Amino acid sequence: MKAFVGRWQTWAGFGIAAVLLFGVAPMVFSEFRLSLLGKFLCFAIVAVGIGLAWGRGGMLVLGQGVFFGLGGYMMGMHLKIADAQIRGDDVPDFMQIAGVRELPSYWEPFASPAFTLLAIVLVPTAIAAALGLGVFKRRVKGAYFAILSQALAAALAILLVGQTSLGGSNGLNRFRTFFGFTLNDPANRRMLYFIAAAVLLIVVAVVRQLMQSRYGELLVAVRDGEERVRFLGYDPANIKVVAYTVAALCASIAGALFAPIVGFIAPSQVGILPSIAFLIGVAIGGRTTLLGPVLGAVGVAWAQTLFSERFPSEWTYAQGLLFIVVVGFFPAGFAGLAVVLKRRRKAGTDPEGGSGKVPEVDSDPDAEKVGATS
Amino acid sequence: MDVLIGQLATGLSLGSILLLAALGLSLTFGQMGVINMAHGEFIMAGCYTAYVVQQIVSSAGVSLIISLVIGFFIGGAMGALLEITLIQRMYSRPLDTLLVTFGVGLILQQVARDIFGAPAVNVVAPPWLSGGVDILGAVVPKTRIFILVLAVVCVAVLAAVLKVSPMGRRIRAVVQNRDLAETSGISSRKTDITTFFIGSGLAAVAGVALTLIGSTSPTIGQSYLIDAFLVVVVGGLGQIKGTVIAAFTLGFLNSFIEYNTTASLAKVIVFVIIVIFLQVRPQGLFTVRTRSLV
Amino acid sequence: MEKPRRSSFRRSALAAGSVVAVTSLLLAGCGSKATEEDAANAESCVDTSGSTIKVGALNSLSGTMAISEVTVRNAIDLAVEQINGAGGVMGKQIQLVGEDGASEPTVFAEKAEKLISSDCVAAVFGGWTSSSRKAMLPVFEGANSLLYYPVQYEGLEASPNIFYTGATTNQQIVPALDYLKEKGIKSLYLVGSDYVFPQTANRIIKAYAEANGIEIKGEDYTPLGSTDFSTIVNKVRSADADAVFNTLNGDSNVAFFREYKNVGLTPQAMPVVSVSIAEEEVGGIGVQNIDGQLTAWNYYQTIDTPVNNEFVKAFKAKFGADKPTSDPMEAAYVSVYLWKNTVEKAQSFDVKAIQDNAGGVTFDAPEGLVTIDGENHHITKTARIGEIRPDGLIYTIWESPGPIEPDPFLKSYPWAAGLSG
Questions:
Q1: Taking CA atoms, what residue in B is nearest to C219?
Q2: Tens digit of pLDDT for each residue in B158-180?
């Protein structure tokens, strides 16, 4: 009986979201605001992955900028090559200006759209899997993992700034076409927005399935009691790696969409600060829920656009306070607050809703001793 | 030959800077397991303390000495305040502490920007520290020698305090087994505050020292934060000697790689080396072996 | 318990998939395919009917670049105030709409879009880093609006929608090299921050050096924001070049010059020519650390002409006697006046009219007479080598014989032939 009810509410939820995103938003918002919303949706896609890895999996992923940047740069490379080909040149415009006559060898495969799309999906996944296996199999603790992923983001940003063939600190910009469609045409920009909205819905649906399946329960179990899961016969490392890889994939796809929607991808989207910025939306919305990260990411990004227009330095204070207050005192975020209120109202009856269970944010297994595996 | 000596001196100097920055962290992170992302801003607080003191006491030499002392207490007070208001509520959630202290760091940076302005401010080095010393053909700036000496002194004092003084014994007891220490009558709350005080104070001292070689601006802490954490992670939690050895190792590694390639590449390569090292030995160089089950 | 989950997964996936498929099919028909022409016929919403005309100022008022950009905003404010006081542009008072770029290229692009399409400004003054300019470029070209960019940069760009009032490389770097050659420098060491401007500048320097018999003894880059220069200064010292060409940015200069001085290197023995250190930065570095070193700009506060003395006086009166004036500020001030003069020559605020009439427009600037080049949208500028003196200000010790024609692609220099496509 519950499954049926759940299913009905899920369908309704997706339906309403689809109507809002595809129907209402384009009518209500101007073209400028719609592409802003498209950018926010990209952040929301990253947030969904973080919700899985951090909220359900307990892994503090501080380096999502790496995967976001990988996806963005790979898409950017393809778009620049495609632009050049339409103009009849061998190399993208910024390379011509820099006096580079030939396409560097690692650029060449990105001339093919199929390869690019495949690479966007596979490369960050492979890297995440390798990194995850290395870290989790060796039972490196969560704190170390957080610091390592931060350092990775910092290192990649430094590396990218030094590479002239990737645009250096300017990054890749001035995209004119997107897989054959000119980006100057507002109808095409709207199409990009629709693609971003569709991808968001798909990602939410897939992650929801993951969260509700047996794997999802295992993931939460690993978060709450890794040793016990090990005693039960499962390898927590593999479970964590899957979640981390899914998060990386989400970030990569989001980055790949970000590049054409916003019009550029640069090292400033890759480093430490953007990586941490991805987290704040998730924390505010409610990291353990499915929709919390989405709404939190969109909400925070929108608030930032609004407030930084008027109160730039006050916004920094607000950001800092948000981190402190939300993560410190309301770790379950707004979604958690909502659940608490709902539970208080429905005291005694089953609180399960359409978005799935809201596990409590419990104490970390790392709590007792952060560090040594001895 | 003078190049080699010069690079050795550079490695030693870089190591001593890393050590100063990471020493306080090895207490708060290494001993207490608290990830304090505002550690960089405590370093920054030390830098600005030196600046303010110099505005009041115009003699650069005297202001340096005074700042070192005052900086310790200011940094310590900030750390203790942070511990009492926020961190003590979050011991069961170390990863969340990371984000919360990041927020604190953001706010501190903006406060510095609002009070002192965004541009770098100049802290004048004392005249007896200007110029360099000729060692076998290489010229080593006196400021760097001063920082090296300061780092060694700090380590020595800290080690002595931890080993010999009652406070140090209490700190070590709480690190090794909190419950047993409390049963023995040690107030773990007070000890935590003390540890944080010392750790943050050391960060501010590092900041004062850093004004001798670099600029003082609101974002100065960010440049040292990741490196400090990596030093503590490589050195291993719980022991000072791990931090010392890791700091100098990374210092030498960085300066030699930088000499042969570029500074950017050196940062990346050192990072890769650290990741590989952690694969081989995930607990770091030295760890505390205890009888407790955790 | 497993079956319902599996089938619900399949059904959700099917549903999601069909939604996407249908949507994309519907939308595929909506967009237009790529052609060689860009859709440059954007509608302009600028309101020229009333007694005011809106322009935008887009600078970083927060973030890491705020240091430099706040002063640029001040200069723009001053220019607008003076122009309004003298009757405005074509009789209309200028209404300045200010936005904060927050030192982030994405924000610059976003705010530029907002200024153009929501605020309907006739032109935008601002930008600083090349990243911000590159991010804004497609916005201005797509909406067919105008940006006035006041910062010295690496050249190799000439957009019809941007006017560049800062120096391009042949007005700053090349004259500096000419000066060094004149002084008999036979070898150089290149130190820079690791990003586009120094990388491009050093390519130009190397081409010049090769054509003029100057040896490049070393080329080193450090990450932006780096504070440790012991290794680099060691290398510089042992390489023993005649001079150092410094393209470091921001706080890195502080650490570099302290190290340089402490190791015993002096401006007499091995001078350092810098292109990113202006009057404000001197204070942060500490005059005692940089006294006697050289800079290459087109404007210094100490230029002794009636026009400049007026400008400096007016600026200090409005913003404080302790605030220096520097090259980017002067370039921003000039850009507002150049826009006004172009509008008045064209008798229109229309973008096409401005583009058509810009060539030959002049302004009696604090740096001297400047003229807009209608082809590449840069302006003529006099190059000046300056020496930093103990009072913290920079004094001209050499200047080019007259204003230099801008050549962003270095087409008129035979030794630069291989540099750009």
A1: B262
A2: 999 999 999 999 988 888 888 89
Write down the pLDDT at residue C34: 42
Question: C272 forms bridges with which residues in the sheet?
Answer: C244
pLDDT at A201: 93
List the single best residue of C9, C157, C219, C409 to mutate versus A (max A Cβ within 10 A). C9
CB contact B284 to A (< 8 Å)? yes
Give the global pTM.
Answer: 0.84
pLDDT for residue C4 is more than 90: no
3-state secondary structure of C63: coil
Residue C311 to residue A244: CA distance in whole angstroms = 59
Taking 50 as the threshold, does the pLDDT of residue A362 lie above it?
no
CA distance B169 to C79: 67
pLDDT score for C238? 87
Domains of chain B: 2-280 (1.10.3470)
- Who among B98, B110, B268 is closest to A317 (CB)? B110
Q: Considering CB atoms only, which of C64, C66, C286 is closest to B122?
A: C286
Q: What pLDDT is attached to residue C73?
A: 92
Mean pLDDT (whole number) for A281-310: 86
Q: Quote the ipTM score.
A: 0.83
Q: Is the pLDDT of residue C134 over 80?
A: yes
Residue of A10, A94, A170 to mutate for C, most C C-beta atoms under 10 A: A170
Write out the H or E segment, with its range, that includes residue C385: strand C384-388
> Would an 8 Å CB–CB cutoff place C251 in contact with chain B?
yes
Whether B93 sits inside 8 A of A364 (CB atoms) is: yes
3-state secondary structure of C47: coil
pLDDT band, very low/low/confident/very high, at C18 (cuts 50, 70, 90):
low
| Cross-strand bridge partners of residue C94 | C53
pLDDT for A348: 60
d(CA C362, CA C370): 6
Say whether C397 sits in a helix, a strand or coil.
strand
Give the containing element (helix H, strand E) for C96.
strand C93-100
Radius of gyration of chain A (CA): 21
Please enumerate residues of B whose Cβ is less than 8 A from a Cβ of C: 2-3, 6-7, 9-10, 13-14, 17, 113, 117-122, 124-125, 130-132, 138-139, 141-144, 210, 212-215, 217, 219-220, 222-223, 255, 258-259, 262-264, 267
Low-confidence ranges of chain B (pLDDT < 50): 291-294
Using the Cβ of B226 and the Cβ atoms of chain A, whether some distance falls under 8 Å is answered with yes
Q: Is A349 exposed, middle or buried (0-12, 13-18, 19+ CB in 10 A)?
A: exposed
- Residue C220 dihedral angles phi and psi, to the nearest 5°: -130, 140
- Alpha-carbon distance of A204 to A45, in angstroms, equals 8
pLDDT per residue over B44-66, tens digit each?
A: 999 999 999 999 988 888 899 99
Helical pair A236-262 and A186-212, crossing angle rounded to 10 deg:
170
- Look at strands C187-193 and C243-247 and give their pairing: parallel
CB neighbours (10 Å) of residue C61? 21
Place C22 in a pLDDT band, splitting at 50, 70 and 90.
low
CA–CA min distance C405, chain A (Å)? 20
Domains of chain C: 17-167+312-371 (3.40.50.2300), 170-301+383-416 (3.40.50.2300)
